[in-house]
Specification:
- With 364 residues, the protein is α+β, with helices and mostly antiparallel strands.
- Helix content is 34%, strand content 22%.
- A 5-stranded antiparallel sheet has the order 5-6-12-8-9.
- The longest helix is centred in the C-terminal third of the chain and has 18 residues.
């Protein structure tokens, strides 16, 4: 596809308030993400607001140019690169719109770490906690349904969405309400879309269920397994995880959770990787918040880069588990940590060493 970039920049700059860049050096900065792929886009647009997104999508639809929504570009599958118009939400659309007692409304460019700091002052948190929280934007987290280690307690971003404001492929704006927020008004065009998708899901229900992956977390393909709600569907659960291919999120209202009063972690050491895996299956039934498996490669890197790690990681550990608990009172937290140690180290004899702590510095 040959694109006159000068014409493209002039056309877009004439209808949007944000910036449009088409120069070679700038485009090269957006040619890659955290994946191995590299593709230079035609243009990079930093929208100021929803209307900029609407104008860009309508222009792209008219000229048959792909749109690539982009946050912090931390994904490793090439979802943030492509030959088209990149919409960079991290530059301008990063406002925390409102914080209520149990919800928060954000624009897609808000970084999770910034949101967490804001919510902490309200004694709340956004439960899902991907490892790249310090840079990942909420738009990217919703696009990928990035769950993180704490899914055991908090579930996935899909479970936290109450409402999405989106721009559809033709440039129309729409508001999608989750099943938990279904009392909100639904427009006629969204009712039509919901009805059509519900019909497709019903018609192919058998095939959908037969091909459902047997995993706790599934991020492959569109989520068609649990979007039904009577004669309709929950479009928020379909949009979250669709990587911007079905609609572009411009604002999201999310359920928040209370901050835990007390937190503690256990660091378990194992002689073999498969022993750690067996222990993780048991630990998952113990009301944990998170459980991360660390293999020998990562342990070696940790010891080489930080002397503090070298002092606490046994040299004969082939793998380790890092397990987190929380509780409303400190005594209950200590009891849960001790129960884990007694069961996994002494009764089951799976771990050869277990270190427990509730001290913030050691825990972090």
């Amino acid at each position: 596809m040959d694109i006159d970039r000068t014409r493209l920049a002039e056309d877009l700059q004439g209808v949007i308030e944000g910036t449009v860049r088409c120069d070679d050096t700038f485009l090269q900065l957006y040619a890659s993400d955290a994946s191995i792929f590299e593709t230079r886009p035609f243009a990079v647009v930093s929208p100021e607001g929803t209307q900029d997104v609407v104008h860009c999508v309508k222009y792209a639809a008219e000229h048959q140019i792909p749109i690539i929504p982009r946050g912090a570009a931390t994904n490793v599958i090439g979802g943030s690169v492509g030959r088209g118009i990149v919409l960079d939400f991290s530059a301008n659309m990063r406002r925390i719109v409102s914080v209520d007692r149990e919800t928060v409304t954000v624009q897609p460019g808000v970084v999770l770490a910034d949101l967490s700091r804001k919510l902490m002052s309200h004694n709340r948190r956004f439960g899902p906690d991907p490892a790249t929280r310090s840079v990942s934007t909420m738009g990217g987290i919703l696009a990928l349904n990035s769950t993180g280690s704490k899914w055991c307690k908090y579930g996935s971003p899909r479970d936290k969405v109450l409402q999405l404001k989106v721009v559809l492929a033709n440039g129309d704006e729409a508001t999608l309400n989750s099943a938990a927020n279904k009392s909100s008004t639904t427009t006629n065009n969204i009712e039509h879309i919901e009805s059509k998708i519900a019909s497709i899901v019903r018609r192919h229900q058998s095939a959908i269920q037969n091909h459902k992956p047997k995993t706790k977390i599934n991020q492959a393909g569109y989520n068609l397994f649990d979007i039904g709600r009577g004669d309709s569907v929950d479009l928020t659960r379909l949009i979250v995880g669709s990587e911007g291919t079905l609609a572009i999120v411009t604002e999201a209202t999310l359920q928040t959770d209370p901050q835990p009063r007390h937190r503690g972690v256990s660091l378990l050491s194992f002689h073999q990787l498969d022993t750690a895996a067996r222990a993780a299956v048991e630990i998952a039934q113990m009301g944990i918040v998170a459980c991360d498996l660390i293999d020998r490669r990562l342990l070696t890197l940790a010891c080489e880069t930080n002397p503090d790690f070298a002092r606490i990681i046994p040299p004969n550990a082939e793998s380790m588990l890092l397990v987190e608990f929380d509780a409303d009172d400190h005594a209950s937290l200590l009891a849960r940590l001790d129960h884990l140690k007694q069961r996994i180290q002494f009764r089951r004899k799976l771990a050869f060493e277990v270190r427990n702590t509730t001290q913030k510095g050691d825990r972090d």
